[in-house]
Design brief:
Elements (H helix, E strand, L loop, with lengths): L1 H12 E4 L2 E4 L5 H7 L9 E5 L5 H12 L1 H4 L7 H4 L20 E4 L16 E6 L2 H12 L11 H9 L8 H10 L6 E5 H6 L1 H12 L5 H10 L2 H6 L35 H15 L17
Parallel strand pairs: 3-4, 3-5, 5-6
Antiparallel strand pairs: 1-2
Helix pairs in contact: 1-7, 3-11, 10-11
Bound molecules: adenosine-3'-5'-diphosphate.
Adenosine-3'-5'-diphosphate binds next to helix 3, helix 6 and helix 12.
Length: 300
């Protein structure tokens, strides 16, 4: 019953276009289709993620790397303006008139991205996170939406997530799609877990990839301002700027726990095994490694 109610509410909350679910009212099939024909510059950098994989964190890192005014706090520009969404352009930003280098965010699968990117114009940073922590983060996140007006229980959400009937579609298809097509793009693959374990190395990798040299002092500022604690309190980074008619901020925060392995606090053994099985079937042949527990090294 609970699952049926959630499915019914999701049918209104999101729409399906070209195999993927998007949030209704904040984007449209026309917006998504237009992305494909967006003109790309060599200096463009796209941050691409499946939802709940560390997007706002990486937006903050990119904002800090690219903008001295973000590092020293002299500019009052939030991350949604610094790294705007191409698939959810809720501020109607004119992407074409933005000065270079442009930064963008997206949850799109590889096949809906701007065509020029496939000719290795521009750069893509793809951040992924283990699908168990993503599912739990997603569950808490979906409850923040005002328009999703129904009781949401973990078990129902988990079943729907496993079937890929959520924003961004199936985690397995998204990550597999990007991973198996990475040679088509100019791409840096990162995992949330490697950022969590050694943020300095991840930031240095990003700097090298986008060809920006920062001195030690600037790197230290990036690390400090991109810490979970700092970001949670930073109104330019914590997504408290999302309008109240979309997100009910009294229900929780975008920056919730920021850990590896929180899935163990909610997932049953049967659910965990079901996900392991699906992982084996859909991802087992790929050399990609995930870390599922803060104490473990990455394993498949
Ligand atoms: P949790 O819900 O597990 O806490 P996205 O930005 O793609 O929606 O991902 C959100 C997840 O990234 C949330 O996970 C959030 O807490 C986590 N996150 C955001 N900023 C972070 C940071 N500075 N350090 C660690 N995790 C962060």
């Amino acid at each position: 019953m609970a699952q049926q109610a959630l499915e019914k509410a999701l049918n209104v909350f999101q729409f399906k276009h070209k195999g993927i679910y998007f949030i209704s009212n904040v984007t449209s099939p026309e917006v998504i289709d237009a992305v494909e024909y967006m003109e790309i510059r060599d200096s463009d950098v796209f941050l691409v993620t499946y939802p709940k994989s560390g997007t706002v964190w990486t937006q903050q890192i990119l904002s800090l790397i690219f903008n001295e005014g973000h590092r020293n706090g002299t500019e009052n520009i939030d991350n949604m303006t610094r790294v705007p969404w191409i698939d959810y352009n809720i501020r109607n930003i004119d992407m074409d008139s933005r000065p270079s280098p442009r930064l963008f965010s997206s949850h799109l699968p590889y096949y809906l991205m701007p065509r020029d990117l496939k000719f290795k114009k521009g750069k893509i940073i793809y951040v992924c996170r283990n699908p168990k922590d993503v599912s739990v983060s997603f569950y808490h996140f979906i409850k923040l939406f005002c328009k999703l007006d129904c009781m949401i229980d973990w078990e129902s959400f988990f079943n729907i997530y496993m079937e890929g009937r959520v924003i961004g579609g199936s985690w397995f298809d998204h990550v597999r799609g990007w991973y198996t097509h990475k040679e088509d793009f100019n791409i840096l693959f990162l995992t949330y877990e490697e950022m969590k374990k050694d943020l300095r190395s991840a930031v240095l990798k990003i700097c090298k990839f986008v060809d920006i040299k920062l001195d030690e002092k600037a790197i230290d500022i990036v690390l400090e301002k991109a810490s979970f604690k700092n970001m949670k309190e930073d109104p330019l980074a914590n997504y408290s700027f999302i309008p109240e008619d979309i997100i009910d901020h009294s229900r929780g925060s975008y920056l919730r726990k920021g850990t590896i392995g929180d899935w163990k606090n909610i997932m049953t053994v049967a659910q965990s095994e079901k996900l392991d099985q699906m992982y084996k079937e859909k991802m087992g042949d790929l050399p990609i490694k995930f870390c599922w527990n803060i104490k473990e090294e990455a394993e498949s």
